[in-house]
Amino acid sequence: MRRWFVGLALAGLVGVGSAQAAGLLGFRLLDFNGVLVRWGVTDAQPVTVTYGFVEAPVTFSDARNCRAMVPMDDLLKSSGLDRATLEREAAAAFEMWEQVANIRFAPARPGTRPDIQIGAQRDPIAFAFADVAYVKGDGAVRPIERSLICFNPKKRWKVGFDGNLGVYDLRYTFAHEIGHAIGLDHPGGHGQLMSMHYQETFRALQTGDVDGAVRIYGRSPSSQQAASFAK
Ligand SMILES: [Zn+2]
Hints:
With 231 residues, this protein is α/β, with parallel strands linked by helices. The protein has 5 helices and 14 strands.
């Protein structure tokens, strides 16, 4: 199994596939030396990916990042946020991707292992990271088997924009890290939600973000319907 890690701002990028023209497409797919990744194996049926928050300290010895995660409680407490807010902002961010691409997200049922596991970093670094592990095998596109998203509990977090770029908006950060967790990398330059640097000029997916998700998963049925109504 090969692994990858990506982070939002301050995090180094390693081994970006050079075949993809930087910036021109407005998106870049995660590229593990020529291997692309996605949840599920086909976009004929929408894949449902589960997510959940870690409820106890957990370590992933095979992960490049988010190797050790703890529950989000301390992060929420120090930022003056509550659990309901966290869950609401996460759900809103997952919904952004769900609305444009043929992929579905659902909270994992209690007692089951979420496909995307979310937590606070045990060893705080930068702001937030994602880690993607995929199933080894033949083929240029491999199924993702696990993604991790971790937030730095030593940073302050907020909901909404206030112009202070030193405190990140939870929903924006979730949406960015989810983009990694489903197979997107940082495009070159600025102007996309998947761009490497945090910004507060938009809080929704931009054209390149949408194009990237659609490239991997196809369009969501609802966006296809909306397009046909518009004709
Ligand atoms: Zn990133």
